[in-house]
């Protein structure tokens, strides 16, 4: 099997090369993203391996099919970036890594919550400069606060367990209730109640037509004044312009983002010597109660190892014509 990687970084190479030892697949790593212009580079490869911001649209799939590609291997969990109907029509299978480390994302969610609350990022800079004043650094006890989680899958449940450990009351909303939610002590509720009662709201659902801009002006107006909003799932779950209005009128007092709806033009690259043209993003950065990380919630060594292993196992299953357990249909 010949596998070509788009949007690959040095760390992808490192973990995939190690995981490939037992298989000996022919792996080719490209740094460029998959675009209509770069799709032709897949010529002669059986498998195209892509990441979160590679758009696998119908026209690109057509080009890939023409180049002989038979399998799209997503090295991530989300699959909102793939036109599944077009892939099926062309006979191209799509596989993903449904669960690599829910802990990585849940723990990063906690890092955003704790940093925004206790302002350790600001304290770090102050102390380095010999400024030990505490004004502006006051936080609140997480103990006894109400956290509302939208999406109670692997990451949502993991986040709920951690928040329970902090002594939070945890409300949860999902399209379906499972016994595990009860076991953890999550109060399953409707969205309006979650918005009304939560001090902290964190998103853990996938991006679908139903969840696109689930956090919009109407939702924000239903939230508690001074709410903390966290998004480590997918950028387009949040209407960024509505959130900026919420920050300006202080309905939202804390915003933690690991994802952003226009992130494909920004994240995973060093743009420190360039002028960022995205004015909405720059407005977000101007608030001192907004903390943004560049889609790094997944980025632990455990998760990268697991992503590489499961992706290669998916390719093995395809090569051996076994049932594709991680196929996205
Ligand atoms: P999962 O499939 O285990 O859980 C998703 C949950 O969302 C499911 O319980 C599902 O029923 C629920 N859901 C679906 N539609 C919903 C809706 N309309 N309203 C409420 N809930 C709904 O997925 P997961 O592994 O927990 O991952 C969650 C999301 O996290 C992924 O979709 C992905 O976008 C994101 N993610 C981000 C990173 C990162 O690095 N920032 C890494 C991995 C995953």
Automatic annotation (TrEMBL):
Keyword line:
NAD, Oxidoreductase
Which residues does the UniProt record annotate as the domain D-isomer specific 2-hydroxyacid dehydrogenase NAD-binding?
110-297
CDD domains, A to Z: LDH_like_2
Homology family: Belongs to the D-isomer specific 2-hydroxyacid dehydrogenase family.
What phylogenetic lineage does the species belong to?
Bacteria, Pseudomonadati, Bacteroidota, Cytophagia, Cytophagales
Molecular functions per Gene Ontology? D-lactate dehydrogenase (NAD+) activity; NAD binding
What organism is this sequence from?
Pontibacter qinzhouensis
Does this UniProt record's set of keywords contain Cytoplasm? no
Q: Where is the D-isomer specific 2-hydroxyacid dehydrogenase catalytic domain?
A: 3-329
Q: Which Pfam families match?
A: 2-Hacid_dh, 2-Hacid_dh_C
Q: Which domain of life is it from?
A: Bacteria
Q: Does the keyword Cell division apply?
A: no
Which positions are tagged coiled coil?
Answer: none
Q: What is this protein called?
A: 2-hydroxyacid dehydrogenase
């Amino acid at each position: 099997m010949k596998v070509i990687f788009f949007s690959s970084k040095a760390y992808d190479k490192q973990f995939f090369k190690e995981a490939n030892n037992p298989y000996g697949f022919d792996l080719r790593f490209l740094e460029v993203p998959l675009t209509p212009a770069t799709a032709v580079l897949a010529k002669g490869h059986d498998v195209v391996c892509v990441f979160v911001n590679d758009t696998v649209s119908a026209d690109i799939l057509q080009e890939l099919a023409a180049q002989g590609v038979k399998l799209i291997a997503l090295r991530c969990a989300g699959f909102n970036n793939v036109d599944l109907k077009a892939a099926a029509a062309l006979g191209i299978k799509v596989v993903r890594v449904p669960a690599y480390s829910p802990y990585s994302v849940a723990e990063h969610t906690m890092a955003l919550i704790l940093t925004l609350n206790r302002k350790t990022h600001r304290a770090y800079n102050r102390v380095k400069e010999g400024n030990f004043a505490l004004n502006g650094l006051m936080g609140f006890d997480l103990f006894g606060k109400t956290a509302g989680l939208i999406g109670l899958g692997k990451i949502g449940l993991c986040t709920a367990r951690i928040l329970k450990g902090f002594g939070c009351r945890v409300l949860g909303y999902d399209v379906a209730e499972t016994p595990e939610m009860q076991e953890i002590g999550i109060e399953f509720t409707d969205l309006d109640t979650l918005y009304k009662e939560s001090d902290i709201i964190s998103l853990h659902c996938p991006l679908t037509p139903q969840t696109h801009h689930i956090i919009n002006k109407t939702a924000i107006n239903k939230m508690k004044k001074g709410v903390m909003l966290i998004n480590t799932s997918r950028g387009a779950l949040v209407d960024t312009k509505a959130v900026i209005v919420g920050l300006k009128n202080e309905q939202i007092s804390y915003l933690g983002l690991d994802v952003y709806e226009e992130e494909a033009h920004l994240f995973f690259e060093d743009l420190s010597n360039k002028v960022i043209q995205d004015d909405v993003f720059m407005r977000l950065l101007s608030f001192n109660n907004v903390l943004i990380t560049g889609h790094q919630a997944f980025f632990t060594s455990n998760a990268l190892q697991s992503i590489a292993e499961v992706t290669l196992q998916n390719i093995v299953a395809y090569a051996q014509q076994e049932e594709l357990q991680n196929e996205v249909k």
